[in-house]
Amino acid sequence: MNYGDLHYLLLLAFNRSNKAIVRQTAKGDLLPGQPKILEFLWEHPDCTQKEISLGCVLDKSTVTSLVTRMKQQNYLTKAPDPSDRRNYRLSLTEKGKEKAVEVRKVCAFVDKIAWQDIPPEEQKQFLKTFQKILLNLETLEATI
Cross-referenced InterPro entries, in alphabetical order (predicted)? Predict the structure, then answer.
């Protein structure tokens, strides 16, 4: 593997960031995948499992098992969707909101470490470039 290959650097960055987040959130009794769902529900209250699946880039079956567990842990509620009885709307409970705040703090800390020694103007430029890369990859995904 080459540190000049974008796909490899993306893989390394995700892996290292995710490991740090999972390691810290596991101390709060969260399983891998649950922090993503908590953060997603914090930013997108009252959504469906399909929306979570797409937003968190998780398989439907993975979301189903994580949501079932999170409901048992009293992190979220699940109610029938009034516009489509085949779907359910998910929302954070008070306990879930508290966990989501903890997750956001962990993620902010990991981001802070990742950005250390990088000036704000370089951070802004990196994010602009990275967003362009994501759009390019979305276009590629649509054509394959």
Answer: HTH_MarR-typ, WH-like_DNA-bd_sf, WH_DNA-bd_sf
